[in-house]
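Reply to dn_fold:

You asked what the input looked like. This is it:
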Amino acid sequence: MDKTKMSEHIQELCEAILRLENAEQCRAFLDDLCTYKEVEQMAMRIYAAKLFLRGSTYNDIIDKTELSSATISRVSRALSHGSGGYRSVLDGNERGASVEAGNINED
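and this is what came back:
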C-alpha cells in the first residue's frame, strides 16, 4: 500500500479514537482492534513514560514493567525527541496517566 493511502487509514484510525466517549468504549474498541498482548504492551509503554516523567531510572522501569531495555529506550527517546504524544496524555493529567497492566481484559 502506498504511503498516501496508509496515511489516510491512519487518519481514519485517529478519528475513530476521537469519537470514543469514555473509557468503557475505549476498552471495547481496543479489545476488538488489538490482541491482549498488544494492548498490554501499549499500556506498559504509557506506564514507562509516566515513570520517566516522575524521575524513575531505566532499571526501576525494567523492574516495574518487564519491558525490554530497547522498548524503554524508545519510550525515553519519544519523550525527549518525539512528537509529544506521551506528554499530551500524561503531563498534568493523572486521570490519563493511571495505566496498570492488571486493568486490561484478557479475553
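Confidence is low (pLDDT under 50) at residues 94-107.
Hope that clears it up.
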